[in-house]
Write a structure and sequence with these properties.
Among the domains are: about 15-175, Beta Polymerase, domain 2; about 290-425, Orthogonal Bundle (cca-adding enzyme, domain 2), CATH 1.10.3090.10. Helices cover about 50% and strands about 10% of the residues. It has helices at about 1-10, 25-30, 40-50, 60-65, 80-90, 140-145, 170-175, 185-190, 195-205, 210-215, 220, 230-240, 245-255, 265-270, 275-290, 300-305, 305-320, 325-345, 345-360, 370-375, 380-390, 400-410, 410-425, 435; strands at about 25, 55-60, 75-80, 90-95, 100-105, 110-115, 155-160, 165, 180, 210. Helix 9 (about 195-205) packs parallel to helix 12, helix 16 packs across helix 19 (about 345-360) and helix 17 (about 305-320) packs across helix 18 (about 325-345). Bound molecules: adenosine-5'-triphosphate (ATP) and magnesium ion. Magnesium ion binds near residues 60, 73 and 75. Adenosine-5'-triphosphate (ATP) binds next to helix 9. It comes from Massilia phyllostachyos. It is an enzyme of class 2 (transferase). It catalyses: RNA(n) + ATP = RNA(n)-3'-adenine ribonucleotide + diphosphate.
Length: about 450
């Protein structure tokens, strides 16, 4: 115990390693397939190295390479300053305030080049809760490593020599499938509460276990996320929901004690047994699309997550005597207003959500020209996908979804026949859905701009 304490004071690691000296792994140990390293990442490290600087692939890309996965993007770390980096590339831009970084562009491909951060953050400006507001202190590589969040995210790969530099036992944690924060967990979460969301996302995405001391403070420290600017929390939530493992992430958030009181959206989603089936289906379908490399629209996703809240309010307004369509808009206003405040939902996303919700009652009008008009709605495909989710979750009879699938695919006269068949069928059997109890009035729902190609969940199938 005393030995451990002395080691801590001296900054010597428990395994006796000097934290300023990395373990250097050769190809035989890391087995990174060079074909998984992007051409542009190699160009950037090479250019920097030829100019006399150190340069490595770093962070998530090294983690993914070690796991045998082709990284989706490459971050580069260097001892060159942002200005020195910028001068070496034709299309390079210094961005950021909190952390200055350089964006190096090759056509559509963007690489982030970061200068090694030093541990001068004790003097960095902080808010009253200890959150670091800005940090542009540069320093040596070992300090940069210590500033990173998790051991598995703090390794450096040099494509030229094919070596991996590991300061914090990241390679062992990769092998043991463990997520371990670097340093004292409480202090690291205080500096940046978003790390609590990151650990959950990585655990779910990689199927790793959160090491107990990394996990323990999270439920207690969760409220600190309230002090993080809403836009940053929203970005992280979006990453989480679009990770291809959204369902697993939400379960993990709940089990880590992160879902309560801090993200209003999650409270709504996770605490509602009736909505759970719908949300589960929506997230399963989103995860499926992400894994298949198809696009997902955030508007569709958030419209699904909040649908049951809209339904509840819609019913309440109708019970209070509002006509169905205005009641739906009032419900949408209420839900969007609360969520925009808390989640910084961008206007464009909110517009998509409203369009998707507003279309729903129109799917139940299968007479005259109404279905033809609906087909022409610029967001038809998204509204239709949403309708299918409602059917699948049992909120609406499956027959409505099947009918629309047929009507959508049909041509010319077939559509007339389908319409005739729908109208010949005895009405009823469609109870249970609020939209069905009363037929909506003739007036179509208010459209709120946001036109564009029918993007569906994400476009083409
Ligand atoms: P992803 O696969 O989601 O891109 P990533 O690990 O690459 O995962 P990024 O947000 O791209 O995540 O960050 C790149 C690297 O920067 C991380 O691997 C980590 O080393 C460091 N980093 C990012 N965010 C933080 C943070 N909040 N605190 C400390 N280090 C961070
Ligand atoms: Mg990354």
């Amino acid at each position: 115990m005393i030995k451990k304490f002395i080691r801590k004071i001296l900054g010597v690691k428990e395994d006796g390693r000097d934290p300023t000296q990395p373990v250097i792994l050769g190809f035989d140990e890391h087995k990174i397939d060079p074909r998984n390293v992007s051409r542009n990442a190699i160009t950037v490290t090479q250019t920097l190295q030829e100019a006399g600087f150190q340069a490595f692939v770093v962070g998530g890309a090294v983690r993914d390479l070690l796991l045998g996965v082709k990284p989706k993007d490459f971050d580069i770390a260097t001892d060159a300053t942002p200005e020195q980096v910028k001068r070496l590339f034709r299309r390079a831009f210094i961005i950021g305030r909190r952390f200055q970084i350089v964006h190096v562009m090759f056509g559509q491909d963007l690489l982030e080049v970061t200068t090694f951060r030093g541990n001068g953050s004790d003097n960095a400006p902080k808010d009253e809760h200890g959150r670091v507001l800005r940090d542009n202190n540069f320093g040596p590589q070992h300090e940069d490593a210590a500033r990173r969040d998790f051991t598995i995210n703090a390794m450096y790969y040099d494509p030229a020599t094919q070596t991996v530099l590991d300061y914090h036992g990241g390679i062992e944690d990769i092998r043991a499938k463990t997520l371990r924060i670097i340093g004292m967990p409480e202090a690291r979460y205080r500096e940046d509460p978003v790390r609590m969301l990151r650990v959950v996302r990585f655990a779910a995405k990689l199927g790793f276990t959160i090491e107990p001391t990394t996990r323990a403070p999270i439920p207690v420290m969760a409220p600190l996320i309230d002090n993080v600017p809403a836009a940053r929390v929203f970005d992280e939530m979006l990453k989480l929901l679009l990770s291809g493992h959204a369902l697993a992430c939400l379960k993990e958030l709940r089990s880590a004690g992160l879902h309560h009181g801090l993200l209003p959206l999650l409270d709504v989603v996770l605490e509602q047994p009736i909505g759970m089936k719908f949300v589960t289906l929506a997230l399963e379908s989103t995860d499926g699309r992400v894994k298949a490399g198809k696009g997902v629209s955030p508007g569709f996703l958030f419209a699904s997550l909040l649908w049951h809240q809209v339904l509840e309010k819609w019913n309440a307004y109708r019970a209070a005597g509002e006509a169905p369509i205005p009641a739906l808009h009032l419900a949408a206003d209420d839900v969007l207003e609360t969520q925009t405040e808390n989640l910084a939902l961008q206007r464009r996303i909110a517009t998509d959500m409203r369009d998707i919700w507003a279309m729903q009652p129109r799917f139940e009008r299968r007479t005259g020209k109404a279905p033809y008009k609906l087909l022409e709605h610029p967001r038809f495909r998204a509204g239709y996908d949403f309708l299918l989710l409602r059917c699948e979750s049992g909120e609406l009879p499956g027959e409505i979804g099947e009918w629309w699938t047929a009507f959508y695919a049909a041509e010319g006269g077939e559509r007339e026949a389908l319409l005739a068949a729908a109208n010949a069928r005895p009405r009823g059997g469609e109870a249970g859905a609020p939209a069905k109890r009363k037929r909506p009035p003739r007036r179509g729902p208010r459209r709120s701009g946001g036109e564009g190609p029918a993007a569906a969940q994400g476009g083409e199938e």
